[in-house]
Amino acid sequence: MRKPFIAGNWKMHKTVAEALETVRALQPLVQDIESVDIAVCPPFTALYAVSQALRGTNILVGAQNMFWEEQGAYTGEISPRMLKELVPLVIIGHSERRKYFGETDETVNRKVKAALAHGLTPIICVGEVLEEREAGQTEEVVRRQVLGAYAGVPAEQARGTVIAYEPVWAIGTGRAATPEDANYVIGHVIRAALAEMYNDEVAQAVRVQYGGSVKPANIAGFMEQPEIDGALVGGASLKADVFADIVRITAGR
Ligand code: PGA
Predict the structure, then answer these.
(1) Three-class DSSP category at 154
(2) Is 9's C-beta closer than 6 angstroms to any atom of ligand 1?
(3) Which residue, by CA, sits nearest to atom 3 of ligand 1?
(4) Ligand 1 centroid – CA 201 distance (Å)
(5) Which of 6, 28, 44, 96 shows the smallest number of beta carbons within 10 Å?
(6) Ligand 1, from 215, 232, 246: best to mutate by most atoms within 8 Å of Cβ?
(7) Assign residue 159 a region: left if phi > 0, alpha if psi is -120 to 50, beta otherwise?
(8) Are 87 and 5 in contact (CB under 8 A)?
(9) Gap from CA of 40 to ligand 1 centroid (Å)
(10) Would you kindly state where each structural domain of the chain is located, as residue ranges?
């Protein structure tokens, strides 16, 4: 059985003070939840403060990106070695990174391998854009992204990774995918690609979240689907009470 995992991607929101205010409000609202893994992913500037504030709680902290090199002359970048000191998780290859910052399947693969080499759990984002969906290319695109992300990653490392299936047209639009549709892509495309690269055991072990306009009103529908193991939540993760509702509904509370 895969344990549900709800992660909040704060994107480029919140100062250190705002981040601390949010997690201090969130923590008591979810402290009794044991059946769901919970994470927040603040911007780099708040990672240290938030990771300190949440020490010893049931809320994990993750970064939203990282570079693949360990150190060196890479102005403005953050390395896996630096993150490992602070957090156990890192989002890799979010569609906004692919769209605005030139990330490709190849750079995603380098980052995934670097994260794993440093003991960080990557949340690997995949998903088709609207034109690809309308052209009937969803399966081909998502399959290519999965195969690309995991190229050269050994099975024993792949097993512990997390994937977020985020159809790009559903992100921040208020127009979520249907639970049935997301379940289909996760089962028939993402797990199928993992089974092909590795085996059924790995394909069944990897947790796959849905992401894109998740909110308290629609999370239950996603969680009813057998292939969906949780959610990567953007906008609805910024408010402590709303995010806590998503976590609590996932836990059946
Ligand atoms: P959203 O973002 O929940 O605001 O649609 C999801 C994401 O980008 O991870």
Answers:
(1) coil
(2) yes
(3) 234
(4) 29
(5) 28
(6) 232
(7) alpha
(8) no
(9) 13
(10) 5-250
| pLDDT value of residue 209 | 98
Q: What is the DSSP letter of 92?
A: E
The amino acid sitting at 73 is A
Q: Which residues of the chain have pLDDT under 70?
A: none
Residue with tokens 């994990």: 60
Entry pTM: 0.98
The pLDDT value given to residue 71: 97
| Distance (Å) from CA 11 to ligand 1 centroid | 9
CATH top-level class for 5-250?
A: alpha beta
How far apart (Å, rounded) are the C-alpha atoms in residues 82 and 99?
25
Structure tokens at 250: 């996932």
For ligand 1, atom 6, the nearest C-alpha belongs to 234
Give the pLDDT confidence score for residue 1 in this predicted structure: 85
The catalytic residues are: 94, 166
- Give residue-wise pLDDT tens across range 62-74: 999 999 999 999 9
Q: For residue 197, what are its two tokens?
A: 């690269």
Pocket flag, ligand 1, residue 233 (CB < 6 Å): yes
